[in-house]
Amino acid sequence: MPDIPPEVPEQHDPVIERIADSLRVLPTVDAEARARVLVAVAAERERAPLAATQRGAWRRFTIPVAIAAALLLGVALRQHRSSRGAALAPVPVAADVGAATALPAARDEVVAELAGVAVQLVVHAPGADRVAVVGDFTGWDDQRISMTRDSASGLWSATVVVRPGRHVYAFVVDDSIWMRDPRAPVATDADFGRPGSLLLVGRP
Amino acid sequence: MTYGLRLVPSGPDDAPRPDPTSPPHQLGGTLLEARAGDVRAFATLVDLYYPRALRFALHMLGDRLDAEEAVQDSFVRLHRAFGTYREEDAFDPWFFRILANRCRSAGTRARNHARLVEYGDVPDLPDRSPARQHDTALAWREAIDAALRTLPAEQREAFLMRHVEALSYDDMAAATGAGVSALKMRVKRACDAMRALLSDPDDA
Amino acid sequence: MSRSSRSARLVAALALLLAATLAAPATAAAQHATVLGASLADLDSATGAALLRELDAAVARGIPTAPLLAKAREGRLKRASGPRIRQAVTVLATRLDSARAALGPTATVEELSAGADALAAGATPDALRAVRTVARQPSLSVPLGALAQLVANGVSPRRATSMVVDLLRRSASSAQLIAFGNAVEIDVAAGLPADESATFRLRAASGAVGAADAALSGTATSTQNLSTPRASTAPGSPRRRP
After folding, report:
1. What's the pLDDT tens digit per position in B171-181?
2. What is B57-121 written as a DSSP string?
3. 3-state class (DSSP) for residue A122
4. Is residue C238 very low, low, confident or very high in pLDDT (cuts 50, 70, 90)?
């Protein structure tokens, strides 16, 4: 597509410019909403297989290129998958660079967006390399909130921003150990039998 | 595979992310692959266009849920219609035509709730707290949103396409089906109305 | 067609067949990863496929997929088996359906999730409908959350429903409802019987609501402050750095 040079605006209007500047700010994107888009498209894909014109697009590639690409892709994907599989056996792998990660982990902006109350969580885990906070407020994603270590005390801490109300959370140590907060009440888990910790937050 | 310490915020996809604030210039390959049915390429396309689409839909519809739904619908329809997209056409007007259509349909469905109240919000008197009164940037954004609301949908749409999405009048014509002079008139009327509502009386 | 191009096409066809065989299961995994996200990318293919179908069906029925994805992630994180994850997701989807039927098509994701929680705890769809009828706040997720809390902590569903409805009729704020539910949960964790706690806390909450009404109408009396327990030794209060 040729580059279309930007048109000169009808007139330079500072009020309109200010308004437009403000309107141009991109909204924070809810990762779940974006995931829903891909799910909806996947559903659509299953309902309506590739149209003929789209299939035609493949045929435009020369055959040797297609063979080479398919072979390489097939072999590479297979190898990749089996190596991930082996590593997975004892330890849940939370994410993998190079896999088809169309949904990057939500960043702390998502947590901040909840407009809630800041709560500091602290746990003593001196031997750990990594401690994450997981809970309903992270969508049970262990990539969202990593705790910070204080080497002297062996304490890990994180400040989470949660809406007032009832929350369940836990710590994941070194991606492999599920740990309740020893100082919080136990929250039962009817679905998976792995109780977490209860966090009750009132409105300040 | 363990992670060790990771800096926060971070995501599992370490590939450089496209800048979502500027129109993508190197879409070609991604578009072709997505059109040919490549799932990952389509996901990249969603990544590239979701923030802008959400921005447009939010300004058109004023409601987060409605906007997310309109954006989701747009991507599904895009996928459905992808076979008809020709690579010599510009993608932006084609995409915005779908999105603008979805926003027009959504706008005609009345919603009972004036705004979405998040869990834990005290729904009464959100605007009277002293802190919010002092947030002039917030007040300005809210004034703009209110002013946008007063515009007829056609003018709002034309204003956003021209001044926020920076589409040329030709692209806007392709996206709306209206003629260039009609569009210029809509933009002018929108600017006049916005200026009248939002000018600071101290402005020269 | 020349012989060389015919054999080239034969080679091409065989090669593509070979590649397809090699790639097929991996491509399915790649597709799962793309749709479900990185944290669910390593689900076994049967569970991943079942989850995709469940999400697909949810989209078709118009119920939100975010809670289903979160439930699947929870199961994966807790290293639950594939069948267990599928069951939890299916059960949640059913509850979201019921919540939707009770709360109406304009219910938000938050409200549906809160409704599903209440149903999971033991509340009835009628209770959800009652809350919907009486509540004046734009969002039902707070009163539904309070209902879920009461029932989950042992207050009978009927009593819990009538308590929440009563507070709603008196225009209790979200903050008051949250405080009520949290207080009962803390009491029960400390060993108090659920019904006793609920009765006591309801009286306090009603008093606070009544006082607020009186203040608005100009006949203010003493206001009983129903706020979250602040003592740092009480379980469930915000953490302090030791």
Report:
1. 999 999 999 99
2. HHHHH--HHHHHHHHHHHHHHHHHHGGG--TTS-HHHHHHHHHHHHHHHHHHS--S-SS---TT-
3. strand
4. very low
Q: Is residue C174 part of a domain?
A: yes
> What ipTM was reported for this prediction?
0.75
* pLDDT-derived band at B132, boundaries 50, 70, 90: very low
Candidates B65, B117, B118, B125, partner chain C, best to mutate (most C CBs within 10 A):
B117
CA dist B30 and B44 (Å) reads: 7
Q: Is residue C171 pLDDT above 60, yes or no?
A: yes
Least Cα distance to A107 among A147, A144, A81, A68 occurs for: A144
Whether residues A124 and A193 fall in one domain: yes
pTM: 0.47
The CA distance from A201 to the nearest CA of chain C, in Å, is 7
Of C163, C175, C174, the closest CA to residue C201 belongs to: C163
Whether A39 is in a domain gets the answer no
The reply to whether A128 and A196 lie within a common domain is yes
> What are the pLDDT digits (tens) for A35-50?
888 878 877 777 665 4
Query: Do A193 and A137 fall within a single domain?
Result: yes
Contacts of C109 in chain B (CB under 8 A): 65
Q: Does some domain include residue A37?
A: no
Q: Are residues C82 and C127 in the same domain?
A: no
Boundaries of domain holding A172: 108-201
Which chain B positions have a beta carbon within 8 Å of A39's beta carbon?
A: none
Residues of chain B with C-beta less than 8 angstroms from the C-beta of C173: 122-124
